[in-house]
Design goal:
Blueprint lengths: L2 H11 L8 E3 L5 H12 L5 E5 H7 L9 E5 L5 E14 L5 H6 L5 H18 L9 E12 L5
Pfam family, one: ASCH
InterPro entries: ASCH_domain, DUF984, PUA-like_sf
Length: 151
């Protein structure tokens, strides 16, 4: 669905190391995906996190510095091309106020209120318990191209 758009973006941005687009979406509802995509476009969300264990479970590729992705809204429309600029592996219990703000959640208290139940639920789906020692793959990214519906 996004292949032709990706080919155009590859040419415009001189991306030759990534033949297929990574698709990046945030949240677990259409409304949340729209809201979080808007935060990215506004520069208020420059990071994200995910459970490291789920990468193994899903046999998914872990994002690396230099990777590009198409950021999708709640309708699965591409709204931007983002580039991964930094990654770390951190314990859930080590997430700090700065990262919470960079994830667009405003404060650590708000980040915890959102992510603790979400990650607990995600782990329960694969029969794993939650603890503060659970490892997160933390990703920082930058918008390198805004996309419109006409692109």
């Amino acid at each position: 669905m996004h292949e032709k758009l990706w080919q155009t973006c590859q040419k415009e941005l001189n991306i030759s190391n990534q033949p297929t687009p990574e698709l990046m979406t945030f949240g677990n509802t259409k409304e949340m995906a729209d809201e979080l995509a808007e935060l990215v476009l506004a520069g208020e969300k420059i990071a994200t996190s995910s459970l490291l264990e789920l990468y193994d479970y899903r046999e998914a590729k872990i994002s690396e510095v230099g990777d590009y992705a198409l950021l999708l809204n709640g309708d699965s429309d591409a709204v931007a091309v983002v580039k991964v600029v930094r990654t770390t592996i951190q314990r859930f219990g080590d997430i700090d106020e700065q990262f919470a703000k960079e994830e667009g959640d405003g404060s650590l208290a708000n980040w915890l209120a959102i992510h603790l139940p979400y990650y607990t639920q995600q782990l329960a789906r694969i029969d794993q318990p939650f603890s503060n020692d659970v490892l997160l793959h933390c990703i920082w990214f930058e918008v390198v191209k805004l996309l419109s519906n006409e692109t």
